[in-house]
Amino acid sequence: MPAPVYIQACLAEHITAEGVCTVPVWIEKPQPVLPPLTLAEGTQVAFAIAGCWAMGVVFRQFARVSRERF
């Protein structure tokens, strides 16, 4: 697990008219759930999803036709 990264934040009520934060708060930057994908990896994931969807449509149509026929 990578070391946590902290970012500085400020509540709206603690920002002065000049735009300065009077009470800064350090919060941990959330780690992304999924790693960043390259274009090739994203394309593979998209085709896998589309393939599963298409296979489901085919099986649904097959089940519908087989129910009507028998």
Outline the structure in words.
The chain has two domains: 1-31, no CATH class; 34-70. Helices cover 44% and strands 11% of the residues. It contains one helix and two strands; from the N terminus they run ββα. It has a two-stranded antiparallel ribbon with strand order 1-2.
Question: How many angstroms separate the termini?
Answer: 57 Å
* Largest sheet data: 2 strands, antiparallel
Q: Name the poorly predicted regions.
A: none
List the secondary-structure elements in sequence, H or E: EEH
Structural class: alpha+beta
Average pLDDT level: 91
Secondary structure tally: strands: 2
Strand content: 5-15%
Helix percent band: 40-55%
* Number of domain modules: 2
Shape: elongated
How large is the count of helical segments? 1
Task: Calculate Rg over CA atoms.
Answer: 25 Å
Strand neighbour order, sheet with most strands: 1-2
Topology:
Elements: E1 6-9, E2 25-28, H1 39-69
Antiparallel strand pairs: 1-2
Q: In short, what is this structure?
A:
The protein is α+β, with helices and mostly antiparallel strands.
